[in-house]
Amino acid sequence: MMLVFSVLTSLVLTFLVKQGARARVRYFLILMFAFVILSVVGGWLMYPFPF
Amino acid sequence: MDAQNRQTGGKTAEKADVPADLEVVLPRADAAKTAVACVAGWLVPGLGHALFRKWDRAGVFFCCITAMILLGVGLDGRLADPNFGGLFPTLESIANVWSGLPYWIPWMLGAGVGDPTAYTYDYANKFIWVAGCLNILTVIDVFDIARGRKP
After folding, report:
1. A21 touching B, CB under 8 A?
2. Domain extent for A25
3. Residue B4 falls inside a structural domain
4. pLDDT tens, residue by residue, B68-125
5. Residue B135 burial class via C-beta count within 10 angstroms: exposed 0-12, middle 13-18, buried 19 and up
6. pLDDT at res. B13
7. Is residue B58 one of the residues assigned to a domain?
8. How confident is the model at residue B31 (pLDDT cuts 50, 70, 90)?
9. In a domain? residue A20
10. Are B40 and B48 in contact (CB under 8 A)?
């Protein structure tokens, strides 16, 4: 589900910000991996907290 | 960033093989067409871009934003009633209202009641809220295109 969210959100943001296929592909991949990796890292960092 | 740099994606004139004295003037729509495009883009994600023949953006915005709302509803998310009594309900209402018809039609049909006991409830709500926020950005993008600030 996180992946679906990341793909859809990244696609919209990419088409808002970038022009041209090459720039869009690059920006999309960076944004999507940033979403996924930061979500996982954030989840692990929050793991010890009780709230 | 000036018009030339905007057109070349921020590259210098030499790198983009564009003459230094070239000034790119983007077409500018009148106020009525701008308003119509913005309202259309609000009601149906991507329709504002379609009016300016930006087919790629129109298709992506329509598919992604509509899919996010439908996924949110399908995953037991809640299409909240407009409620402006407090900060968070207000922000939620703004996000919902800005989703346009993909929010209003299921809401009027009584769908999207939400099931807080479902595993996907929280995620589904995020889908719905983010779809509305993204649609706000697309309407701003339509406005920029209409005013000739963006290709």
Report:
1. no
2. 2-46
3. no
4. 999 988 888 888 777 788 888 888 888 888 888 888 888 888 887 878 888 888 888 8
5. buried
6. 46
7. yes
8. confident
9. yes
10. yes
B1 found inside a domain: no
Within a domain: B51: yes
Torsion on CA atoms B29, B34, B38, B40, rounded to nearest 10: -90
* Distance between CA atoms of residues A18 and A24, nearest Å: 6
- Cβ distance A13 to B68 less than 8 Å, yes or no, reads no
The count of structural domains within chain B is 1
Number of domains in chain A: 1
Are B60 and A23 inside 8 Å of each other by CB?
Answer: no
pLDDT band at residue B20 under the 50/70/90 scheme: low
User: Which tops the pLDDT comparison, A34 or B3?
Assistant: A34
Residue A42 lies in a domain: yes
Contact A15 B65 (CB under 8 A): no
